[in-house]
Amino acid sequence: NTITLKFLDPTWIQLRNKENHIVFNKLMSEDEEYSYSVADNFTLATGNAGNILVLINGNTRGKIGKKGEVLDSLVISSDFNN
Fold it and tell me: Which residues are CB-contacts of 21 (< 8 A; sequence separation ≥ 6)?
């Protein structure tokens, strides 16, 4: 299972692994995407959850939060729907 994060506007994102080490940290551009495996079980932090659309195996599942919402320690599972 593959999780793809699609960025609707410029948005900062950070992904951490199970050992709490940063594996990805970047200000993403509009229409940029980042994909990883559900099995990675990454923890996600972002400064604007409403700008991030989640796709699982190519199927759109919704945004991870509301516009302007700050999230820390979100884990996206294969059954994510919003």
Answer: none
